[in-house]
Amino acid sequence: MGQTASSLRDLARGTLTLTLFQFASKPLLALFFILLGNRAFFSDESYGRLESLLAVVNLFLIPADLGLESYTTRRLARDSGNTSQWLPTQVSLKIMLNLLACLLLVFFIAGFELYRGREIRILLLCGAVSLLSGLSAQSYLRGISRGHQRMEIEGLMGVIEKMIVLITGVLALFTLGSLAMVLGAIALGSIGAAFWAGVRIRKIEPSLRIAWPVPWRTLVESFPFALNAICISLFYNMDRVFLSFHNETSVAAYSRGLRLVWAILLFPQMMSIAIYPIFRACVNSRKHA
Fold first, then answer.
1. Which one, of 68, 42, 77, 75, lies nearest residue 248 by Cα?
2. What are phi and psi of 45, to 5 degrees?
């Protein structure tokens, strides 16, 4: 009983830390998108094209994850002392899914010509693929950190990402004003934060390495966790993707309002997600009491 109470205290402390880090990181991202949405700094066409690409990248996080984030969190919470037997091969599965998702993303962007304009095509493709890889790595590392109840790693990862995006993005915006460079700044933030989180998590999870063969059967177990992520991703991104087939100006006007609504209404949702592990642990402790 004492161990359960201690575990709940540790979980509550970690969740509070995560929430505080989220309070710090979200305003940084909001400030950056306020600058991007200002017509004096970024044209409607460039801003609309950027929002379209961001929405498409977020959609392709679905095949890059397929529920592995939540599945890994659940499995680590149940069996954190036996990770050497399954985590290394699951890392290889995650890498294969990411490569497949990046390939599909390239075909989608090239096929529907989402790079319309004066920007260099290869730069936009590289930026989109890099961003997808960084976000995909973050999602998996987030699952591991939550499984070990180390939410401060997730929180710091978000702060580091937003700080890199804000600093490099502002430099790219005011010096070059290029869509490709701004997209590259966002991608740099996601990759940099994922690299930092990987180094930190490697210290608490030595089994975080690559091993073969790829356990494709794991996808059968993780698929139920993917259903929720699929619905959420479609809900948040399909509107801008559909608008991108009309014109970039429409996407820009819509995205300005959407970002404002997100800033006002979605913050309570972020906090509810952060405190979910505490409620889950309380329910489990009552069952075993």
1. 42
2. -65, -45
Tokens of 79: 């069996």
N-term to C-term CA, the chain: 8
For the entire predicted model, the pTM comes to 0.84
Residue written as token pair 């991608």: 187
Kindly report, residue by residue over 134-188, the tens digit of the pLDDT.
999 999 999 999 888 887 888 889 888 988 998 898 888 888 778 888 999 999 9
Q: Which residue has the tokens 């949405």?
A: 37
Indicate the number of domains in the chain. Answer: 1
Measured N-to-C along each axis, helices 218-244 and 68-78 cross at an angle, to the nearest 10 degrees, of 150
Alpha-carbon span 178 to 3, nearest angstrom: 55
Label residue 128 exposed, middle or buried (CB < 10 Å: 0-12, 13-18, 19+). Answer: buried
Alpha carbon of residue 114 to chain centroid: 22
Enclosing domain of residue 215: 2-36+44-288
Residue 118 DSSP symbol: S
Under-70 pLDDT residues of the chain: 1-25, 113-120, 265-289
Which of 32, 110, 98, 11 is closest to 62 using CA atoms? 98
CB 237 within 8 A of CB 55: yes
CB-based contacts of 255, cutoff 8 Å, min separation 6: 37, 47, 48, 51, 240
Quick one: angle between helices 218-244 and 248-265, nearest 10?
A: 120
